[in-house]
């Protein structure tokens, strides 16, 4: 199956003197998907986004947006961006801010007026559109920032911590907006600390560390795959446990309780059969899905937070 890629990077690197911020980043983000970009602090996520936006030049390697080199005016007009640490002109009203953002993208006035009204309503700020941004709360600024990233109807949206400062209602709103963008065939590149949010909405996720992609997972495969399994059983001696460890990862074995990690739930019947054939009395087998947070810790490690 062939895919149309909105983003492609080829051994993309960024160095600041002796510091390597991004080392050999290679990935492809498909058109119409929500792509999660996950890694610990200092993994190179923000630097990667800046290179893709044309805000900083790579030291080596290359990348394409919409199958074109980075930094072209045509590409920039098709991209929306909500940075994590935004600094908006606080003397502008919400309406003026969106109008200014839309004019930078050279949107026709009639289209801009329509888009502004639509997004002010969508992010719940219609009644505050004439208030200056200096009067907005953190959550309101996050909402108006999302609106400015989308007011020009981009085909690709970079969202860096888009739910920071939002309550559960606001986070649900952001997820709904991302899902709508996907339905329209648009691409969302998401960086978020909230792995539970990523797990709900993303199609695929990339785990990066020290500027390198360690692994890319499809969420649908993850949801059907690896799991932690709790087994209540009696008669598991050292020999049985040694044979079991060749079939899966034995995380703990204490008295009549086993904790296993399996790559696929389809292996459970084989494990159960093995235990029974070796005289183990099995009372219960309870699979527990591995969360994205657990997988993150397995892949990236515990030597740094998100």
Task: Describe the overall structure.
- This protein has helices at residues 45-52, 73-77, 94-104, 109-122, 138-150, 168-183, 195-201, 219-224, 238-245, 268-277, 292-300; strands spanning 5-16, 19-30, 34-38, 60-65, 68-69, 79-82, 156-160, 187-191, 204-209, 212-218, 227-234, 249-254, 257-262, 281-289.
- The protein has 306 residues and is α/β, with parallel strands linked by helices.
- Strands 6-7-8-3-9-10 form a six-stranded mixed β-sheet, with helices on both faces. The protein has a four-stranded antiparallel β-sheet with strand order 2-1-4-5, with helices on one face.
- Helix 3 packs across helix 4 (109-122), helix 3 (94-104) packs parallel to helix 5 (138-150) and helix 4 (109-122) packs antiparallel against helix 5 (138-150).
- It is elongated, with a radius of gyration of 24 Å.
- Belongs to the ABC transporter superfamily.
């Amino acid at each position: 199956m062939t895919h149309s890629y909105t983003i492609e990077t080829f051994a993309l690197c960024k160095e600041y003197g002796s510091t390597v911020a991004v080392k050999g980043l290679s990935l492809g983000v498909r058109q119409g998907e929500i792509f999660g970009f996950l890694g610990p602090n200092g993994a190179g996520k923000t630097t990667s986004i800046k290179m893709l936006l044309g805000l900083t030049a790579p030291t080596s390697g290359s990348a394409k947006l919409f199958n074109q080199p980075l930094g072209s005016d045509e590409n920039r007009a098709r991209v929306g961006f909500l940075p994590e640490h935004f600094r908006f002109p606080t003397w502008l009203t919400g309406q003026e801010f969106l109008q200014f953002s839309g004019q930078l993208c050279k949107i026709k006035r009639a289209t801009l007026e329509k888009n502004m009204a639509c997004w002010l309503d969508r992010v719940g700020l219609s009644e505050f559109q004439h208030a200056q941004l200096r009067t907005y709360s953190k959550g309101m600024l996050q909402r108006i920032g999302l609106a400015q990233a989308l007011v020009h109807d981009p085909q690709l949206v970079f969202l860096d911590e888009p739910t920071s400062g939002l309550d559960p209602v606001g986070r649900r709103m952001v997820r709904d907006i991302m899902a709508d963008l996907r339905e329209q065939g648009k691409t969302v590149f998401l960086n978020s600390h909230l792995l539970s949010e990523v797990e709900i909405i993303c199609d695929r996720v990339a785990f990066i560390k020290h500027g390198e992609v360690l692994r890319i997972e499809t969420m649908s495969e993850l949801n059907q795959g690896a799991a932690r399994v709790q087994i209540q059983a009696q008669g598991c001696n050292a020999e049985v446990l040694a044979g079991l460890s060749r079939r899966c990862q034995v995380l703990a074995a204490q008295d009549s309780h086993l904790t296993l990690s399996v790559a696929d739930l389809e292996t459970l019947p084989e494990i159960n059969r093995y235990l029974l054939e070796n005289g183990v009395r099995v009372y219960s087998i309870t699979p527990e899905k591995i969360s994205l947070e657990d997988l993150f810790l397995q892949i990236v490690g515990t030597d740094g937070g998100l």
